[in-house]
Design brief:
alpha/beta; binds glutamine; about 20% strand; 7-stranded mixed beta sheet; two-stranded antiparallel sheet
Length: about 280
């Protein structure tokens, strides 16, 4: 038995003995005890009870086996809001906040916005939460993902603020027009070694890869966008670190103007987009 597996430990004991990184131990302690980050410090001699101890043992072991923290706690913060997560959805990533910021700065007042492949709903909810004038629709092909997205809508907004729709890309929004379309689609290339490393091993494979060259979601989204965009509307999409050129090319070939890419905090071109002017 390891020292962290003994019973009758205090918070301070756990912080000292846990085999996990300090931050991860704290996140699990908060989830199990219900204490805040500050309380963990001010009540560090708090005695972990048996039920909490057993829960922590299980969580620490699952983390040692590689499961992402966000699935263990069922939660991840994105754009300053806590979001429910589950293995049915990609864990929201800080990189994606760039897409939210661009959507907020490009969507006209009182306009309609579509989020394609919404997963947890983090993008759609963050946008709607910041801009109460927007009419937001969030679609996904996965019913399990939509259940999480709906929970996140209800957690942060009046239920009608984001319309959650089951749809295979544009299939079930036929005839509907939006002023802005955003997406963080599956873009990892089939057989990329990252898919079998770290947190990605536990995330839904269909949210990570198109099982092809990593561009097929962009081809589909870009091909259908003009039919679903109001004139002058923007299409904004997150992509991988090496895909900006190819995504811009696809936009240009489809007749988009103002085609450009934006860099994330690491200086990598992370989002590309363009505007469609119809006559
Ligand atoms: N950004 C994710 C990663 O590389 C991938 C997300 C996606 O495919 N949309 O870990």
């Amino acid at each position: 038995m390891h020292a962290w597996q003994q019973d009758h430990l205090t918070i301070a004991d756990y912080e000292r003995l846990s085999p996990l990184e300090k931050l991860e131990t704290r996140i699990l302690l908060m989830a199990v005890t219900g204490l805040t980050r500050i309380e963990l410090i001010t009540q560090s001699d708090y005695q972990i009870n048996l039920a909490q101890h057993l829960a922590l043992q299980t969580l620490i072991q699952r983390r040692l086996d590689g499961e992402p923290i966000a699935y263990l706690t069922g939660e991840r913060e994105f754009f300053g809001l806590p979001f429910f997560t589950s293995p049915a959805v990609l864990i929201p990533r800080a990189d994606t906040e760039l897409l939210v910021e661009l959507a907020l700065s490009h969507a006209p007042e009182n306009s309609a916005l579509l989020d394609m492949g919404t997963g947890s709903g983090a993008i759609a909810v963050a946008i709607a939460h910041t801009r109460s004038d927007l009419f937001v629709t969030a679609l996904d092909i996965s019913p399990d993902a939509l259940a999480i997205a709906q929970k996140n809508v209800m957690r942060h907004l009046a239920p009608s603020r984001v319309r959650v729709v089951h749809s295979d890309w544009y299939a079930d929004v036929e005839g509907q027009v939006f002023h802005t379309i955003v997406s963080n689609p599956p873009y990892i290339v089939k057989d990329d070694p990252h898919l079998s490393q770290g947190d990605l091993r536990f995330e839904p494979i269909n949210a990570l890869t198109d099982h092809g060259d990593g561009l097929s979601a962009y081809r589909t989204i870009i091909a259908g966008a003009p039919e679903h965009l109001a004139s002058d509307g923007w299409l904004l999409m997150e992509h991988g670190y090496h895909q900006a050129d190819e995504v811009r090319q696809l936009l240009l070939v489809r007749g988009f103007v103002q085609v450009q890419s934006w860099r994330d905090l690491a200086g990598i071109e992370r989002v590309s987009g363009g505007q469609f002017i119809s006559n």
